[in-house]
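Archive record
______________

***
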Amino acid sequence: MTDFDLRERVRSSTYYHLARLFEPPGPFLRDERVLEALHAALEAVNRAAAEHAAALAEALEREGLERVRREHMKLFVGPEQLLAPPYASVYLDQQRELMGPSTMAVVKLYAEAGLRQADDLKDAPDHVRVELDVMHLVIERTRDAIHEGDWARAERLVRVQAAILQNHLSRWVTPFTNVIRTGSATDFHRHLADVLEAVIRQEFLEDAAAMIDEFQALKSAAMTGTTTTPPT
């Protein structure tokens, strides 16, 4: 396994388990050890986010699953007016409309990665859970393409990752998490906001650039014959 592949496995796990936290909370959080897996992924790469993840687990134990679930519905689902709408277009488009220009832009990026709404996305395309899940899926597809030696496809997927992060997640994470902190009555959701913002900030400022540099070095080595087999 290369250093690049190890980094990407950590990034993939982080996005996957963060996405699970924006589903209605249920027994799966404990059964699938979602918070433990998130903490483990973050511990070696993002100390601040890992500390928030640990606080998140403590808050769930203290406040209880049912209270956390009720608060999730108030913040993100309804049926009353949402306290923290989980849709990018609310924060990115001037008219604060669902399925606005920013949503159409991210749908095009999903198509570039070969993702289809009906098969791969189970909510509005700009829902925070969907954007996090897409990052997880695109990272996994990037790893697969590299393993198969399909460098053109891998490079396209790397560009999609960078575009989703730079043009979407990094632009709306702060206003979104600020609304969560303001509207939430639970420590669990305030810590969730902290984890999400810390992860996306480091991804935007450091990890994505390092990923691109490492990918280009790996591709160059493969193209010049320095490496003879793709990473496993």
Q: What stands out?
A: The longest helix spans residues 187-223. The CA atoms of residues 40 and 132 lie 18 Å apart.
